[in-house]
Every structure is written in structure tokens, then in C-alpha cells.
Design brief:
Helices cover 42% and strands 13% of the residues. It is of the alpha/beta class and 309 residues long.
Length: 309
Amino acid sequence: MTARTPLPQLDGRTFITDGGMETVLIFREGLELPEFASFVLLDDPGGIEALRAYYADYVAIAGKHGFGIVLDTPTWRANPDWGARLGYSADALDDVNRRGVALLEEVRAAAGEGVDMLISGCIGPRGDGYVVGDAMSPEEAQDYHSAQVETFASTHADLVSALTLNYADEAIGIARAASEAGIPSVISFTVETDGRLPSGQDLRKAVAEVDAATDGAPAYFMVNCAHPTHFEDVLGDGGLERVRGLRANASMKSHAELDEAEDLDEGDPDDLAERYRALRPLLPNLTVVGGCCGTDERHIEAICSAWTR
């Protein structure tokens, strides 16, 4: 087990993340990502350089504004079911997850001591991020995700982040797996336009359920892959102090509309940034800000500028 220092974003310092990795690489860089899987780029020298250049833009923004940065490995799809669809064995997935961390270690070394950078082992849902599908029990989810979590725990990753989860039981399983492996976990739920998880559960209740079932194991919670207009109305009643991170979409479209869209909706970076700033009183512990689908360095730059006003 790798020794890890406490996460500095828990002490109130602002950290940024990157934007929508897959949408940037597909729509702007013209790369092919089968099954929306960016980890396949780690098997191609040109793909590795594309990832390196992608990360560098966000490291530069963090350094410019004096913020820390959490960067995710390109492994959102690098779990057993999605890996099998792409012809990756368990050993091959273990290797590619390790190489994702190794790439970010190189990025961190290149950034130097002027940027406080954390490496996050990125975990995605077993199924579709927008649809619950065949739901697992917490025990099944822990068993399913434990291999990827344990791989990250044996590297120099600082934490694991489970992004775009859409029901509580899968989140519980991942949090338990991370706790047993000895690595901090972040649980990030996505929500529909009504502010509820795709499972229909209230966001506040989902967070409370995960905490109750895991003895508060996650380091913190996030919301990702939804526009602020989808959930800002549900934040006013409090009870979401455990939500420290926000990675919103650029688009105001619903998940169903995004699935059907042929072109990327990049939204308005300045408008998105102002919406982030307006959410600060509603999410008093918000210290990690970044983007998801449709966002790129322009959105993160705008968010940083708004955040310091």
C-alpha cells in the first residue's frame, strides 16, 4: 500500500480539474475513441502525446491562477465490461490503468513545484452513465470495481474519483472498495434536469445513503455531467455540505438530448463561470471546480477568473 498525504482540497484551498476529456479529444482533436474510451490512446504514441498536450493546458491554467489541480487518468472506461468490449483482458486493464497514472506522474514532474497537482485514478460506471440499466447491489459493485481500485491503490495515485454514477448502490460499492484498499475516494453523481439522479433518487438522499452505508468513507462528493440549471434549484435547502466538487456540462441539454446530438454543444464559457460563482453560497464547501462534456480550457479559464472575483 502506498503512503498518502491528506488531501489538501479538504482544507479549503481551491483546486481545478480538467474539462470534458473525451469530447475535446473527439470533437476538437478528431481522435477516435471507441465506446467513448480514452484509455485506448495509451496504446498509441500519438495518442499519448495528445493526452500530454491536453493535460498541459489545464496545468498552465492552474499555475496562472495559483490554484491546485486534480487530474484524472484517462481510464473512465477501463473497467472489466467496457474493457472486454474493446478486447482488453484483466491483465491488460491492470497495465493500462497503471500507465495512466505513470503518464500523470510525468505531467506532474514537468509542472514542477509551482503547481500542486494531485493524480486521481478515474473510475466510471459499469454501465451507461446516463441510464441505470442492470443495477448492482453494493456487494456486487464492490466486487466488480475492486480490481481497478486496487490497481490505483498500488500506484502513486493520490485518490480515486468515480465519475458519472447514477445510483447509490454502485457508489457504496466503490467507496467500500477504496476504503479496503487504503486510498481516498471521491464519489461524483450525475443528475437529470430535475436535479435527481437517473435512478430517481434525490441528490441529498443519495449522498446521505452512501455516507450511512460506508461510515462516511468518501473524502467528499461531486456532481458532474449536468448543467447548473439542472440542479441549482435543489441546493437551497442545505444538507449538501459533503459536496466539495462540481464538474458541469457546457450544454443545458438533457442527457437524452446530448445522446442524440450530432454536434458538440460548447455552451457559453462566461455564462457557465458566472453560474459556478452563483452556486458558492449554496455549496459552502465547494473547493474543486472543473468541467465535463463540452467544456475545454476556455471554460476552466473563465471559471478560474470568476472564482477569484
